[in-house]
Amino acid sequence: MMEIVAGILVLLGGAFAIIASLGVVRLPDVLTRMHASTKAGTLSSSLILAAVAIYFGELSVVSKCVAAVLFLLLTAPLAAHMIGRASLDPKDHPRT
Of the candidates 93, 89, 80, which has an alpha carbon nearest to the alpha carbon of residue 31? Predict the structure, then answer.
């Protein structure tokens, strides 16, 4: 039963990774591409790591997966914010 749940989570994670890659390719500007890659990429990685944690079920693997998901949830928005700030033209948006 756990293998089925893990398989479904991996498939969902792969689907969201494909959606993120399509968003990066198809969306028109940097900010919307960044949004697609950050949101869907973090979700897909989290789903795949949850599948790994469920499949193996060992405390060391589960704790590493939880730590990786927390790291992704903390750093992905910050990285996206920095990329968004770097992509803006300073002439259009002066710092105050």
Answer: 80
